[in-house]
Amino acid sequence: MTSPAAPEDAALVRAVQATDDRAAFTQLVHRHQSAVRTVLRRLTRGDAGLADDLAQETFVLAWRNIRHFRFEAKFSTWIYRIAINAWRSEARRKRELLLDADEDSPIEEAAEDPPDIVSRMDLERALATLSDGERAAIAACYYADLSHEEAAQALGIPVGTVKTHVLRGKAKLRARLAAKEET
Amino acid sequence: MSDIERLLRHDARIELPDDGFATRVIGALPARAAPQPRTWLRPALVMGSALLGSALAVTLSPQAASMMQGFQDLMSLRTGSSGAIGGLAMCGALLLSGLVLALNDD
């Protein structure tokens, strides 16, 4: 968390842009490592090793390209986009990534809300059962805190598809977690 | 906010311990954040090849004599001849393309 006396992200970015200030970049890494690694863990179905490799690649790419950062968005939004791109490239290397594949099945309606106490592991397992597109949309919108429009841009799919994926993904999660509670 | 949204947001906010991650990242950084942008390189290459092409065209074309005469006219400030106007137009086009390239920042 950022303490009140800590410099804003923008000030740290300017220091890196101006003088390749490694200390400033280190602060940015410390500040954003947890969020970036969490987003990537969710995207990689909980593969912590792969997620950390991609997170490292993300920060190295950010370092290389930080001069192109123009403060049109928050630094966090920019770095999440880099992270999502790194994941997409990795996933494409391994197999066909179907981000915009839309299922014909109707969105599942869960009769009940998920239980109040859900372990992180249960949520991680439930997220891993979603399709690539649904998981990516949920990770972008709820973990990376991107708007639907920003998520669509980062994932390279239409905004409507992002919204559908989010709705469908949440419905599936609700159903999976409710079922988990019954067993 | 629905319960599932609350769960997701809560999960997103849980802090992961650094566990040496930042040290590994900093150790993997290349020497410089990015190479100094060489904004002059592309315009220089394009302008250089355009100039070379123009020079070859002027030298090898049947109109070479009148173009050379045009440049001589320009040197002596006689800008009304057709050769001088052609030379001026060529210089203007080259200057304009150079400016466009120099201002093209991507």
Strand content of chain A: under 5%
Query: In DSSP terms, counting alpha (H) and pi (I) runs of 4 or more, how many helices of chain B?
Result: 5
Q: How far apart are the first and last residues' alpha carbons of chain A, in Å? A: 38 Å
Rg of chain B, Å, rounded: 29 Å
Overall number of strands of chain B = 0
- The count of helical stretches of chain A stands at 8
The most extensive interface, with participating residues per chain, is:
A-B, 40 and 25 residues
Query: What's the rounded overall pLDDT mean of chain B?
Result: 77
Spell out the helices and strands of chain B N to C: HHHHH
The ordered string of helix (H) and strand (E) elements of chain A is HHHHHHHH
Low-pLDDT stretches of chain B are: none
Sheet of most strands of chain A: none
Feature tags:
heterodimer, A: 68% helix, 0% strand, B: 106 residues, mainly alpha, 5 helices, 69% helix
How would you describe the overall organization of this protein?
By secondary structure, chain A is mainly α. Chain A is built from eight helices and no strands. Chain B has one domain. Chain B contains five helices and no strands. Chain B has helices at residues 3-13, 21-28, 41-60, 64-75, 82-103. The A-B interface holds A 1, 16-17, 20, 22, 25-26, 29-30, 33-35, 37-39, 52, 55-56, 59-60, 63-68, 113-114, 116, 118, 120, 123, 138, 142-143, 145, 170, 173-174, 177 and B 2-5, 7-9, 11-12, 14-16, 18, 21-22, 24-26, 28-30, 32-34, 37.
Topology:
The complex is a heterodimer of chains A (183) and B (106).
Chain A: H1 9-19, H2 22-43, H3 48-65, H4 75-94, H5 120-128, H6 132-143, H7 148-155, H8 159-182
Helix pairs in contact in A: 1-2, 2-3, 2-4, 2-6, 3-4, 4-7, 5-8, 6-7, 6-8, 7-8
Chain B: H1 3-13, H2 21-28, H3 41-60, H4 64-75, H5 82-103
Helix pairs in contact in B: 3-4, 3-5, 4-5
